[in-house]
Amino acid sequence: MSKPNVVFLLTDQWRLQALGYAGNAQVQTPNIDRLAGESINFKHAISGYSVCCPWRASFLTGQYPLTHGVIVNDVPISSEPIGLGDAFKRAGYNTAYIGKWHVDGRGRSSYIPPERRLGFDYFKVLECTHDYNQSAYYDNDDPTMRFWDGYDVFAQMADAQEYIESQSPAKPFMLVLSWGPPHNPYETAPQEYRDRYETHEIELRPNVPPEMADDAREWLAGYYAHCSAIDKSVGDIMGTLDERGLTNNTVLVFASDHGDMLGSQGWTRKQKPWEESIRVPFLLRYPAKYGRDSREVSPFLNAHDIMPTLLGVCDLPIPASVEGRDFSAALAGETIASNGRVGAARRHSPADTGSDGALLACFHPFGEWSRAAGGHEYRGIRTARYTYCRTLNGSWLLYDNDADPYQLENLVDHSEYADIQAELETLLQRKLDEIGDEFLDGMAYINKWSYPLDDTGTVPFR
Q1: Is 314 in the active site?
Q2: Which residue, 19, 72, 166, 378, is most buried by CB atoms nearer than 10 A?
């Protein structure tokens, strides 16, 4: 079998609960639902570092945040990894990245030179913008700022189509298309998509408090509009692969970096350990190797596991700098080796199966989760049934997600759950020990890398 192409469709702040295939009957996502019907679904995909830059840096390096140093938004990668693009380019691939980058940390509107692109050659990127209708970018090696035409989801999708169509069958390609929506501002999708959703008809999750209901319905109507616009673009990309005869030998992934609370638990945005923030979609279709029948796999896929898993799917070498696990064997129905696949920098214990839970971490509270807003650093574990978290002051959250899917009852220190809480605490501590995470006060990490803070306690962005 020839090396497969890879097309990775990455969205920003799209929670799992806002997809038709995941059970949401309100949002219109027919193309993604169709893709789900042909894909392997990582049912336990978790955004363990549920905010943009830490997640993206782990995705692009295969490393844990305390290795690459991106523990908050808008700081640069501090390690010297072999990046995702590097790994594929070494294996003979053309590499491309289009859209939002957000790991350079040297200004959200600054030009990013080739040596900081982690191996991606075709590069139409801006560090970060949320102005989706006046969206800037830099065209490869030209330091002149340009602007996408109209709503950037559609313009970036069209550029990705052109890139795919330009590729020679003689050489495989790896393309990441990184969209900004459905991240807020929610009200900026094209009018035809906003017209699909009436605010008063939006149904809320039971964990949205009454005092936030009106706002949450407005947010969700706009959020769903962005989702449906992206869904249209996912269908267009699928159509291009079909037209070019590339579908069978292309690894097509649909994913998100983290979710969005949208009023659940009385919170907005991300960084929190509740389901709406940490549960994300991860669909992988590769017909030549796995067929086109839908099925679920159970590994707890976290951001740092994506790079090694993609390389494993493509039968390519995994760099020694990678710390995540290769879960590709699970896609073929095999049992994951008990010690996983990890890089030389840190190794997991022989008892770690890689399927018992995903680590959750907030290293420094900032932004909407700042100390001033009531936020704090935490570490936690999400297993197939439970969510458990602790802060620097001790146990904080415990939910039985089977019995209580909306996480309405915190079971910490309930006597009937004492054994379960103790077991989860042991599991959490074991995982922290395995990666050398001492769970220090967030300022210890800020000071380690000498990151500046503004008067709100946030690393400023420019």
Answers
A1: no
A2: 72
CA distance 118 to 70: 15
Average pLDDT on 372-390 reads: 96
Specify the 3-state DSSP secondary structure of 72: coil
Q: How does pLDDT run across 59-70, given as a tens digit for each residue?
A: 999 999 999 999
Question: Catalytic pick from 44, 52, 183, 389?
Answer: 52
Strands (E), 20-171: 40-42, 94-100, 122-126, 136-139, 145-147
Residue 52 falls in the annotated catalytic set: yes
Q: Residue 87 is inside which H or E element, if any?
A: helix 84-90
| Model pLDDT for residues 275-326, shown as the tens digit of each residue | 999 999 999 999 999 999 999 999 999 999 999 999 999 999 999 999 999 9
Q: What is this structure's pTM? A: 0.95
**Beta strand 358-362 with 122-126: parallel, antiparallel or unpaired?**
unpaired
Give the DSSP letter string of 375-427: ---EEEEE-SSEEEEEETTEEEEEEETTT-TT-----TT-GGGHHHHHHHHHH
Question: How many other CB atoms are found less than 10 A from the CB of residue 437?
Answer: 17
How is residue 359 annotated by DSSP?
E
Chain-centre distance of CA 431, in angstroms? 21
Tell me the three state secondary structure of residue 59. Answer: helix
For the chain, the residue count is: 462
Q: Find all residues with CB under 8 Å of 213, minimum gap 6, and list them.
A: 204, 263
User: Which 3-state string (H, E, C) describes 290-358?
Assistant: HCCCCEEECCCCCHHHHHHHHHHHCCCCCCCCCCCCCCHHHHCCCCCCCCCCCCCCCCCCCCCCCCCCE
Q: Is 26 helix (H, G, I), strand (E, B) or coil?
A: coil
Distance CA 176, CA 179 (A): 10
State the catalytic residue, choosing from 68, 102, 348, 364: 102
Tell me the H-state helices in 147-212.
152-166, 191-194
Task: Write out the two tokens for 164.
Answer: 């795919």
Q: Please name which of 88, 64, 87, 86 lies closest in space to residue 77, comparing C-alpha atoms.
A: 64
